[in-house]
Amino acid sequence: MKNLKFVVYREDKYYVSQCLNIDVASCGDTIDEAIQNLKDATELYFEEGEAEYHPIEEALLGEYAVNG
Predict the structure, then answer these.
(1) pLDDT (tens digit, 9 = 90+) per residue, 16-66?
(2) Which are the contacts of 8, defined by CB distance < 8 A and separation ≥ 6?
(3) 36 or 68: which carries more pLDDT confidence?
(4) How confident is the model at residue 49, as a pLDDT?
(5) Which residues contact 24 (CB under 8 A, 6 or more apart)?
(6) Contacts of 22 (CB under 8 A, 6+ apart)
(7) pLDDT reading at 68 higher than 90
């Protein structure tokens, strides 16, 4: 059993869910739909075999601005 950490954010009219442990993302019309779609996508990712998993002990979501 692997613990997966993810982030959900709004992009235009959709919610995007992105896993932090593996390179998998999904989206949905609602937050719940985006999370469920991510769960489905990660299960398929691990079923296919050669999954590269990066354990994450702690996570912090931050924001800052840069000139550019």
Answers:
(1) 999 999 999 999 999 999 999 999 999 999 998 777 899 999 999 999 999
(2) 15, 16, 17, 18, 31, 34, 35
(3) 36
(4) 79
(5) 18, 38, 41, 42, 45
(6) 4, 42, 45, 51, 52, 53, 54
(7) no
CA-atom Rg of the chain in angstroms: 13
Nearest C-alpha neighbor of 26 from the set 12, 38, 44: 38
What pLDDT was estimated at residue 37? 98
Find out whether 33 and 13 touch, Cβ atoms under 8 Å. no
Whether 25 and 42 have beta carbons less than 8 Å apart is answered as: no
* Strand partners for 8: 17
